[in-house]
């Protein structure tokens, strides 16, 4: 093993929880059963690392093999790091007939033409997702496997999920993806988060969809303890309306665990007592950010319990409808705040 393979293995062992390390090594299948038994997983991480280094040295494994181990762990634990979403646009006529073998060959070929010294590993997951691991090198240096970029793409869909991408490599990756998937362009989908499964489900509508309607729908029965019958009777109609409106805005089932929503506002300052700010020619710019372990569930709860007003403002309900968590809002209206915000597509 060379130094780069040793460093990658050391960092990977520190990263993987001890209770998950054995299963990850079993899926790797680069070590024999006897060699895996040689490793004592009850010891400290330092001791486990030294034992694994010795076993991998015996097997004469390279950095390419250690990268496979990292890829197995990342695929099995996708809700780590920060994932950003892109959307392919203007598909060519034969884009929907693209197969995995064709995609792999074309992607590697295009990326190699754009960037020298790049290492690419492509693996198809059980859920039909195509996982790509890219280690970038420079003109006179080998690929750096310690800072790999991960790309997830579902063939025949326009969505691409990327993690660990540096700004200098972004144009190269996007161009290679555009060419290899047979599209004319690719754009930012304005959706990001630490949980890949959440942003995937939100963008690809893999959860109970939202079906807005102007007609009231019957409220499903709820098993709730009634602490005060008099209060419950008085507020039953208002509570039912709040639950119905919250359900129409966000759905009634499990929601993707999106963790943040950012609104970039550009508006006019309105205060008759402050002429200096009110008469400014330039608009007032600010950023509003909502954060929560599950922001969609939090917003639905706020609407259904009366913490937030209903009907739910389109700015908040557009998160599940548009599949975004970043919005640019411009205020051009001179009057009422209820007419001031428009979400730009």
Question: What would the keywords be for this entry?
Answer:
345 residues, alpha+beta, six-stranded antiparallel β-sheet, Ubiquitin-like (UB roll), disordered C terminus, single chain
In brief, what are we looking at here?
This is Centromere protein N. With 345 residues, the chain is an alpha+beta fold.
DSSP strand content? 15-25%
| Secondary-structure element series | HHHHHEHEEEEHEHHEHEHHEE
* Highest-level CATH class of the largest domain: Alpha Beta
Report the CATH architecture of the largest domain: 4-Layer Sandwich
The largest sheet, given as strand count, sense and whether it forms a barrel, is: 6 strands, antiparallel
Tell the overall outline: globular
Strand order of the largest sheet: 2-3-4-5-1-6
Overall SS class: alpha+beta
Number of domains: 3
Q: What helical percentage do the residues reach?
A: 40-55%
Mean pLDDT: 85
> What is the CATH topology classification name of the largest domain?
S-adenosylmethionine decarboxylase
> Mind telling me the C-alpha Rg?
26 Å
Q: Compute the number of helices.
A: 12
Runs with pLDDT <50, length 5+? 215-221, 333-345
> Gap between N and C termini, in Å?
51 Å
Number of strands: 10
